[in-house]
Amino acid sequence: MNYVSTRGEAPDLNFEDVLLTGLARDGGLYVPQSAPALSTDGLAGLDYAGLAAAVLAPFVDDAMPRGDLERLTRDTYGVFDHAAIAPLKQIGPNDWLMELFHGPTLAFKDFALQALGRLFDHALKRRGERVTILGATSGDTGSAAIEGCRGRDAVDIFILFPKGRVSDVQRRQMTTVEDANVHAIAVDGDFDDCQALVKAAFGDLAFRDRMNLSAVNSINWARVAAQVVYYVHGVMALGAGRRPVAFSVPSGNFGNVFAGHIARRMGLPVDRLVVGANVNDILHRFFETGAYRRQGVVPTMSPSMDIQVASNFERLLYEITGRDGIRVRAMMDSLRQSGGFEIPPAALAQVQAGFASARIDEEETLAEMRRMHAETGEVLDPHTAVGTAAARKARAAGDVPAETPLISLATAHPAKFPDAVERAVGFRPALPERLGDLMERPERAADLPNDLAALQKFIGERARIAA
Ligand SMILES: Cc1ncc(COP(=O)(O)O)c(C=O)c1O
Ligand SMILES: N[C@@H](CCOP(=O)(O)O)C(=O)O
Questions:
Q1: What is the pLDDT of residues 369-380, one digit of tens each?
Q2: What are residue 428's DSSP bridge partners?
Q3: What is the tally of structural domains in the chain?
Q4: Residues in a beta bridge with 158
Q5: Which residue range(s) make up the domain with 71?
């Protein structure tokens, strides 16, 4: 399986190269040359780790022997707290919640980042190389990436988070890690600033090569590939791989729901994908009107979705334009220079056939958390509530018919957002026992301005590759 960039570059790269490279050198994002077909024959009866190996195999191709891949997925999902890994709970006549928060850092990010840490290890040992990982987080990717990479010999990891804009639990999950290869950095800015800094650092090719930079955000294709698995798991669980299943996905950087789209491209019967947005609703406005136009980021109760430039959206654009890297580059230039662009009505109609969307404001999020608790007993985190509220709107609008099962992805454990949960339902959910002393552990983080030179100096002085 070979990979190409959304901006046209077509180097001869396999899965391992793409894993280690992260962002394409022309600034685009890697995608497989074509989506591999996945037959559901033979998937029934596999446990989650077995399913993960089967789904990842065509992406990984000859970059790793199948036996190694199977061992890797067993190790990866062996650290999850729930025997079912991604348990499904019924919350309505044909509505379900898929809990994706039973990994080490209590958010869906663990599904891919526990695998990524191990994939990095495998590739770097084989090549005898080291990497410097640079990532941006609006709250959850950071701790999951740190957990996946902490203490690994061949890796130094630098994670940028927007100062004062993540929950206390999210911050502490990053800043209380003691391993010397971990660097949490509070940036004076919002998540879009952090993500732009990461992309700018990758864009400085001399710096990137000197540091051997790698990515853990969903700009890294391996992240998306590993997230495809739970969509397959849902389709197998509710439809035996034959009946179409719809999903509602609280969205920010568009990596999670894009993985659902890839599952559909691989031939899985994935029905509508409902994109749930908080008031930072650039994605919802796009799916409604075809215009992708950035506005300022507003802090909300669902901080991990406080994003206006959704990096994976570029992968969808690549498809919308018929895989035209030149047009994608022009659109991304227009986003940077004039704040947006628009797609033609015919292209929008095509997109709307596969995606629906809804904007859920702060009051609606609280009301949804209250309603779900009262009606089903489920305590939702605010991101998940955006997803279930969006699912409700999609059903009401007829975007997902009553006879189609609809799975809402529960993307984070409610204990990561105790203030929001308390506001909604009147009590603070407890952290799992292993994180019980999180709020007492000493913190260690650097403060940096939103400035590329300052970031590069910081990394250059600490990355062991630079020594
Ligand atoms: C808890 C939670 N829900 C939803 C999202 C949005 O997912 P994505 O950025 O893949 O669209 C995030 C951040 O990625 C998150 O941390
Ligand atoms: N919501 C994310 C933002 C980064 O998304 P990613 O999927 O590109 O890593 C977070 O929690 O950091």
A1: 999 999 999 999
A2: none
A3: 2
A4: 134, 183
A5: 3-103+220-420
